[in-house]
Design a protein that fits this description.
Mean pLDDT: 98
EC number: 2.7.1.50
Distance between the termini: 15 Å
Number of domains: 1
CATH architecture: 3-Layer(aba) Sandwich
Cofactor: Mg(2+)
GO molecular function, one term: hydroxyethylthiazole kinase activity
Strand order of the largest sheet: 2-1-3-4-5-6-7-8
Radius of gyration: 16 Å
Protein name: Hydroxyethylthiazole kinase
InterPro entries: Hyethyz_kinase, Ribokinase-like
Low-confidence stretches: none
Bound molecules: adenosine-5'-diphosphate, 4-methyl-5-hydroxyethylthiazole phosphate, magnesium ion
């Protein structure tokens, strides 16, 4: 499906997205998903997983502020998603900063996410190489992460989305590059995490590769538009939400190569 068709379908279906995300991202992720055209719910208690994940269009799992109870809930939710053919998206935020987080990311990977969305340093480290990541921020170029992305796609049968100045997405066979956006995007905390939540929304309405491309294009187009009127990272964040809502399906094609 084209990005145009994907966004049209997203808004027509307004899918429910189970978002398991971090304390930093909680509010902006919900606002981004709403502005774009889907319906977010942040649910973390393990006691609710069996009932809730099963009725959602997609699950998104983000390890940005991980703790043991959340990790247990995330693993349980990923299993429910897999058992019910519900797509799920993994965001391995800063997974290389500690042995605890590295192991958590490997255990979640073993549960076979449909899509992995991460910055270049996180993708490089996920493939076992040493990158230049600094906590949640990337220190590597997207180009440097492309071979790692292809290897991860082959190894895990997942769609890999690498974000940065020009995004790269591959399922091991197909690939796309998505351009646009603004230098203020990495200056707004948790915008990548919010993108992961929205990618779940897109995955609920179409094939995983097409979902990743459409979501990345939606962000790039809205980011470019917001940068025209913003004066810095603060006003950019506000303008970006408006631009996500204002983006028209036909606008998305221009961002994708
Ligand atoms: N220098 C940049 N120019 C334009 N867009 C960017 C730039 N850096 C990141 N982005 C965009 O910001 C969003 C989040 O990506 P990124 O900052 O790489 O993720 P994370 O927040 O997980 O580190 C993506 O849509 C990406 O395309
Ligand atoms: C700053 C920070 N610390 C833990 S999670 C988080 C947010 C990271 O967000 P993003 O990956 O979108 O930059
Ligand atoms: Mg991130």
């Amino acid at each position: 499906m084209t990005p145009q068709e994907m966004l049209t379908k997203l808004r027509a279906q307004n899918p429910l997205v189970h978002c398991m995300t971090n304390y930093v991202a909680m509010n902006i992720a919900a606002n981004v998903v709403l502005a774009a055209g889907a319906s977010p719910a942040m649910v973390h208690a393990e006691e609710e997983i069996a009932e809730f994940t099963a009725i959602c269009g997609a699950l998104t799992v983000n390890i940005g502020t991980l703790s043991s109870p959340w990790l247990a809930s995330m693993s349980a939710a990923a299993r429910v998603a897999a058992d019910n053919d519900i797509p799920w998206v993994l965001d391995p935020v800063a997974h290389f900063i500690s042995g605890y987080r590295r192991k958590a990311a490997q255990n979640l990977l073993a549960l076979r996410p449909t899509i992995i969305r991460a910055n270049a340093s996180e993708i490089i480290a996920l493939s076992g190489q040493v990158g230049a990541g600094k906590g949640a921020d990337s220190g590597d170029s997207v180009e440097a992460a492309q071979a790692a992305a292809r290897a991860l796609a082959d190894q895990f049968g997942a769609v890999i989305s690498v974000t940065g100045p020009v995004d790269f997405v591959t399922d091991g066979t197909q690939q796309a590059r998505i351009s646009g956006g603004s230098i203020w995007m990495p200056q707004v905390t948790a915008l990548g995490c919010a993108q992961t939540a929205l990618m779940g929304g897109y995955a609920a309405v179409g094939p995983a590769f097409d979902a990743a491309v459409a979501c990345l294009a939606h962000f790039k187009v809205a980011g470019s538009a917001a940068a025209h009127t913003a004066k810095g990272p603060g006003s950019f964040q506000v303008q970006f939400l408006d631009a996500l809502a204002a983006t028209q399906p036909r606008d998305l094609a221009q961002a994708v190569a």
